[in-house]
Amino acid sequence: MSLAIAGALAAGVATGAGESAGTALPALFRRIRERFAGRPEVPQSQAQLATALDEEFSSDPGFRQECQNLWNQATGDGVVNSFHGQAKNVVQVRDVHGGLTME
Predict the structure, then answer these.
(1) Closest by alpha carbon to 5, among 42, 48, 34?
(2) Minimal CA–CA distance to 70: which of 9, 10, 16, 14?
(3) Statement: the pTM of the whole predicted model exceeds 0.70
(4) DSSP alpha helices (H): ranges in 1-103?
């Protein structure tokens, strides 16, 4: 996710694309800029930003979740089920928290 966000941030800032992706992507960009504001070394490249985001996500799970939520809103975070073959039943799930038993 860090690399994808870093790439989107780099492209969005360079092209202004952030404004056309609804409110979630600009909100994500704003939140990341706020997070890194005032630091002596602000990440300049996409790779540096991805590394810095990974570090922030590791140290602050709440920030990671906030960014994940905004990223999901911005990208649609749809689930695609593509099945080829034969089966009696096909089950599609997304986020499973806890156990899952199928009989």
Answers:
(1) 48
(2) 9
(3) no
(4) 2-15, 24-36, 46-59, 61-75
